[in-house]
Amino acid sequence: MRKVLIVGATSAIAESVAREFARREDRLFLVGRRPQALAAIADDLKLRGAPMVQFRVQDANDISAHAELIESASVAMGGLDTVLIAHGTLPDQAACAASVERTLAEYQTNALSQISLCTLIANRFESQGNGTLAVISSVAGDRGRQSNYVYGSAKAAVTAFTSGLRQRLHGKGVHVITIKPGFVDTPMTAAFDKRGPLWASADSVAKTIVRGMIAGKPVIYAPWFWWGIMQIIRNIPERIFRGLKL
Amino acid sequence: MPGAGSSWGRWPRHRHRTIALTNRYQRLVLDEPGTLLPYGNGRSYGDSCQNDGGFLLTTRGLDRYVAFDVDNGVIECEAGMLLEDVIEFALPRGWFLPVTPGTCFVTLGGAIANDVHGKNHHRLGTFGHHVLGFELLRSDGSERWCTPSENADWFAATIGGLGLTGLIRRLRLQLRRVPGPFLRGQSLRFGNLSGFFELSRDSDADYEYTVSWLDCTAKGRQRGRGVFMRANHAVAEGTTPGSGQWRVPFTSPLPLVNRLSLRLFNTLYYHRPAARRADAVWHYRPFFYPLDGVLEWNRIYGPRGFYQYQCVIPPATAPESLEEMLETIAVSGSGSFLGVLKMFGEQASPGLLSFARSGTTLALDFPNGGAPTLQLLESLDAITRKAGGAVYPAKDARMSATSFQQYFPRWKEFLRFIDPRFSSSFWRRVSQDPQGEAS
């Protein structure tokens, strides 16, 4: 039985992932900002098979609370061996371009708070000699594009950070997993026109994520075909790329 | 997402903006003008799930279990959950849906809003009979818990209320005990409509589920032939169908349903060995949901989609009215893969606008052939009106206001329960003054 901590547990992808773990009868500890939504999710996960679900109302941006948050999850579940860091926002790029404050606030949410959690959890897993730490980054972190570069560069930091962490903890029983979702139909992307074959449901992305987490895959593109798309995008020469409307 | 906001008949096509609901504490925040309509899984066939020019409140994000009482079979969950999810949860614990329509890909909210029925109507009535209560959110922010005794007027208006009385967020449903996933019964051929009525009379007392497939292409002496199926839940050993599903991968550029393919399909179906064989054991999936094994089967009707016609004809006039309908359809040369025929029981439905009522129901689909199809359907309506029957709004995209107002005589009582911000394309059509109706 796994003991799973999920930060950003009311996000659509995180909730679908939690359902997969609940079905496997794992223990769950959920962290999010909205108490009513967390309580509803916790009740649902218990009926889906989770033997124990607890939650804590906490803004992931409150970095000073991270150490205590991780400890309380471990105390509640009688240990901690699996973590999914899933919180995040999709910034308004134009508003960020006009405001340094906004840009840095988005970095706080989408990079720094994740890096803080990763650091503490990685050290804990290293000393206990096992654990799976999965972090939701994004395909947007694979290359900065004018339409979305504040989010993209924050996710690039998360991708590079987890890549380094993965090397450091290789051979020490700890799996560090970088998850790169493509276009997922969730409330975060409510403003988009979701027609077309590139859009995936949170449920199908969650299944891919959980399979990858259990198998200890280092990097998960979800759905898988984004690996190919990003290979192409990464390999466009900068001379051409700078003129593209992406 | 593919098909977001469309109906199962893929016709008519409308423009909407969508508001995705993701948790049951969400308020309806309405900064912009425009009417609202709850939209579940889009399995209503016509325009009762459409709101041209307005907003659709998509409810699939409301899909959480709330509570389950395993001893009494009472399940509470959010309204965007699919019937499929309820079965998946309840069946291993010895419970099943008390009433199920022919697809499990509908939401619980949709099952209430259309007061759906199943093959056991003569025993257990409609879906609404088993709803213990639900929470209704109105656009003014008010919330009501409605049951048969508490807010009973709102309960009766919302069951079969086509999503117009507000948003159903959460509900409590009474399940029924079953011994397992299998049903045991028989399939029997009948040569004409009186054969069907005879089999219904003989079977309804001993079998919980009865339904018939009807060959709508048969002419002359073969008209009205079909296959009658009857079954009960049973302890049985059978084969569980694999989880694999077929999908119609794209919309056929031309309808695959035409005079020739229909005759072929119906003749083969009638003469297949399984139709002759009497005793049968079915897994619940092929028995209740034969078409759910083929995902997006509606695509075979091509880009113009199709119309479904489902009516109920009162017992006294059913035999001759149904004969007249089959004659009309056979002459038109337009037909259906699956004509479905079933005797309803006498139990009164719980909703002001419920469709199911004592009589015989017939359901057919027709590829959208434009004006001739509409003419055919209108001539079927003329027969239904004359017989004192009704047509099912969940499947309709074209009935006239005159027809609707005759079929649902309590519609004026219903008006005061409609949320002032809620509307649908269907409702705007059928509630207009028949005098001013475009012909």
UniProtKB/TrEMBL annotation, chain A:
GO MF term (any one):
oxidoreductase activity
Any one annotated GO CC term: membrane
Q: Which UniProt keywords apply?
A: Oxidoreductase
Q: Which InterPro entries match?
A: NAD(P)-bd_dom_sf (IPR036291), Sc_DH/Rdtase_CS (IPR020904), SDR_fam (IPR002347)
Give the stretches traversing the membrane.
none
User: Record's Gene3D superfamilies?
Assistant: NAD(P)-binding Rossmann-like Domain (3.40.50.720)
Looking at the Swiss-Prot or TrEMBL record, what is one Pfam family this protein matches? adh_short
Is the keyword DNA repair in the record?
no
Q: Does the keyword Oxidoreductase apply?
A: yes
Q: Which family does it belong to?
A: Belongs to the short-chain dehydrogenases/reductases (SDR) family.
**What PANTHER family is this protein classified in?**
DEHYDROGENASE/REDUCTASE SDR FAMILY MEMBER 7B (PTHR44196), DEHYDROGENASE_REDUCTASE SDR FAMILY MEMBER 7B (PTHR44196:SF1)
Q: Which NCBIfam families does this UniProt record tie to the protein?
A: PRK07102.1
Q: What is this protein called?
A: Short-subunit dehydrogenase
TrEMBL record, chain B:
One GO term in the molecular function aspect is: D-arabinono-1,4-lactone oxidase activity
Q: Does the keyword Flavoprotein apply?
A: yes
Keywords noted in UniProt: FAD, Flavoprotein
UniProt-listed PROSITE patterns: FAD_PCMH
Q: Which residues form the FAD-binding PCMH-type domain?
A: 1-178
Respond yes or no to whether keyword Flavoprotein is given for this record. yes
**InterPro entries given in the database record:** FAD-bd_PCMH, FAD-bd_PCMH-like_sf, FAD-bd_PCMH_sub2, FAD_lactone_oxidase-like, Oxid_FAD_bind_N
From the Swiss-Prot or TrEMBL record, give the protein name. FAD/FMN-containing dehydrogenase
Species source reads Panacagrimonas perspica
